[in-house]
Amino acid sequence: MTLSATKALEALQVGAVDIIPREELFKKLESGRRLKVKLGLDPTRPDIHIGHAVVLRKMRQFQELGHKVVIIIGDFTAMIGDPSGRSATRPPLTLEETRANARSYVEQVGKILITEDPQRFELRYNSEWLEKLGFAEIIRLTSQLTVAQMLEREDFKNRYTNGIPISIHEFLYPFAQAYDSVPIQADVEMGGTDQKFNLLVGREVQRAYGLEEQVVFTMPLLVGGDGRKMSKSYDNYIGIAEEPSEIYRKLMKVEDLYLQTYFELCTDLTPEEIQGVLEKGGMVGAHRVLARLLAGAYSQPRIPPRLDRSVYEGMGYRLESAGQDALPGDSLVAEAEARYNAIAKGGIPEDIPVVPINHRDLQGGQIPLARLFTLAGLTASNSEARRVAEQKGLRVNGEVVRDANQPIALNQPLVLQRGKDRFVRVQPGD
């Protein structure tokens, strides 16, 4: 796509929080050369979620304008652990752990970015250059900022003020991320708003190495459906590679307060269309529109460039019905919606995971319920199972578990349930 610099900037700035400096991005676009647009991803978890997709979809827009996206897999920096937005030191990962997670990342970014064209996509690992840095270079890097400047960062400032320890190695993270922009010679670096400080350090470091400074381009952060930071540890994230039924279920659970924000950040519906869906469909109908659109889009090998009316109506729905219509026929979205509706009415879905329980875990053919739920993966530990049972959150074949310490015979398959929508079928195994 060929657009004037003015038109390109107008399109790119939609939804952005910061473009620093905006006039520099205009000049870069006006130069007519292919820009290098950088994003660093630390593979601390194997999943990319729809919060990451907010930034990745904007990068896809750069690609469609003819520019090159450079994804930096932070296999080296993940061993430090990005302290951005954190209230405590994150345990470092091994290089082997980060590279295992990175393989999953590479597959998943291909659902959004154009990865098959080397003119528009490049993948790098920052261990390529960070492992080779000598102590002299580290001194040169760290001389670019003062301790006072580091403590201007909100998370560092809060931890310092509240007496929460900050490890010296955490100060090195912004420098390591910034140095990535030197071998890449990035023109633009993207990230969420929590990355603004790190991205600005990249400008300082590039200047120190005699390079043209990158433009800082930040996008809004998408919170989890419960309002907390989207995170696997909070179980409030929505992975872009999850099954459509899981994406649908999790989007239906987004708190009403955040629904409009999800529409604005995760779709390309116009403000008027979003307002119409919210007003006409109510919260339930609006949830259905969002869940249908995203579950359908992310079930595809590569999501459409724009998640707009045409995608929604291409699945057989009408946007004007605001989620009150039903989809006839068979589709992944229809199946996901039917499954969700069945569970909402107290039913047990048919397509639930099956977990065999080894006979060695049984004593006289029986097993304590807490242990059974933990082996099935519905609780992290026996103590968690007992706690959830006290809150009446566990069921066996639809019956509430009263005592998680109670042994139960496992001579036939049993359906275990946690909460309203997590099911596992357990059965005797070898």
From TrEMBL:
UniProt KW keywords: Aminoacyl-tRNA synthetase, ATP-binding, Cytoplasm, Ligase, Nucleotide-binding, Protein biosynthesis, RNA-binding
Cellular component annotations (GO), alphabetically ordered: cytosol
EC numbers for this chain: 6.1.1.1
Superkingdom classification of source: Bacteria
Family matches, as InterPro entries: aa-tRNA-synth_Ic, Rossmann-like_a/b/a_fold, S4_RNA-bd, S4_RNA-bd_sf, Tyr-tRNA-ligase, Tyr-tRNA-ligase_bac-type, Tyr-tRNA-ligase_bac_2
Catalytic activity annotation: tRNA(Tyr) + L-tyrosine + ATP = L-tyrosyl-tRNA(Tyr) + AMP + diphosphate + H(+)
Residues involved in ATP binding: K232
GO molecular function (one): RNA binding
Compartmental location: Cytoplasm
RNA-binding S4 domain mapped to chain residues: 367-428
Motif ('HIGH' region): 43-52
PROSITE patterns: S4
EC category name: ligase
Subunit structure: Homodimer.
Membership in a protein family: Belongs to the class-I aminoacyl-tRNA synthetase family. TyrS type 2 subfamily.
Function: Catalyzes the attachment of tyrosine to tRNA(Tyr) in a two-step reaction: tyrosine is first activated by ATP to form Tyr-AMP and then transferred to the acceptor end of tRNA(Tyr).
Protein name (Swiss-Prot/TrEMBL): Tyrosine--tRNA ligase
Organism: Meiothermus granaticius NBRC 107808
